[in-house]
From TrEMBL:
Keyword tags: Hydrolase, Metal-binding
Record organism: bioreactor metagenome
SUPFAM superfamilies: Glycoside hydrolase/deacetylase
Lineage of producing organism: unclassified sequences, metagenomes, ecological metagenomes
Gene Ontology MF terms: hydrolase activity, acting on carbon-nitrogen (but not peptide) bonds; metal ion binding
PANTHER family the UniProt entry points to: CHITIN DEACETYLASE 1-RELATED, GLYCOSYL TRANSFERASE-RELATED
InterPro entries membership: Glyco_hydro/deAcase_b/a-brl, NODB_dom, Polysacc_deacetylase_ArnD
PROSITE patterns attached to this UniProt entry: NODB
Protein name (record): NodB homology domain-containing protein
BP GO terms, sorted: carbohydrate metabolic process
Residue ranges constituting the NodB homology domain according to the UniProt record: 69-196
Length: 196
């Protein structure tokens, strides 16, 4: 008869290894290039019908199926600017364009960086004037946040933005419908560089 002694340390290591293996398998299966996909327009049309029927809530764009396997790189600029020159140099070195979602107070504090981003041909996005919790605002307050930001951008770089990202990723039906009524597409993210 064999007796196996399993220590607590061995059990913990085995659990960690099992979790890593299972996570790897799930990721491998979910990112399989052979997975079936329907066109984005079909998904959007079906979703819009469900929203109209009251079966779904309004949601922003998180990702778009693409046959050419390209990604959209987005950067939120709401706090410091110490990495901005490095980011711009790196993007230029690799000939990559990105969308920078800017906040009004950041635009006021770092106007030269905003001009450099625009001059490099990157897309500028609206991230509000003051970075509030949008899902706590009235329709009038939402419009003011976006309009105040837009006024700053037109004055500084002479262009309007067409995409919007809600601060903290927070939104509700009022936010989405109001922002879309103003002519913006609401963009979220589906992978964060700080996720572990």
């Amino acid at each position: 008869m064999r007796i196996f002694v399993i220590t607590k340390r061995t059990l913990i290591i085995a659990a960690i290894v099992l979790a890593v293996v299972v996570t790897g398998i799930i990721l491998l299966l979910s990112f399989s290039p052979g997975a079936a996909a329907v066109s984005s327009s079909t998904v959007v049309e079906e979703y819009e019908m469900e929203v109209l029927a009251g079966q779904k809530k309004e949601v922003p764009v998180y990702s778009v199926d693409r046959a050419d396997q390209k990604i959209a790189l987005t950067i939120d600029a709401a706090w410091e600017d110490d990495k901005t020159p490095f980011i711009l140099e790196t993007l230029e070195r690799y000939d990559v364009k990105a969308t920078f979602f800017l906040c009004g107070f950041w635009v006021e504090k770092y106007p030269e960086n905003v001009k450099a981003i625009a001059a490099a041909g990157h897309e500028l996005g609206n991230h509000t004037a003051t970075h509030p919790h949008m899902n706590q605002l009235s329709k009038k307050q939402i419009k003011k946040e976006l309009s105040d930001f837009e006024d700053m951008m037109v004055k500084l770089v002479g262009q309007k933005t067409t995409v919007f990202r809600p601060p903290y990723g927070e939104y509700n039906d009022t936010v989405i419908t109001t922002v879309r009524e103003m002519g913006y597409e609401v963009i979220q993210w589906d992978l964060d560089a700080f996720q572990t």
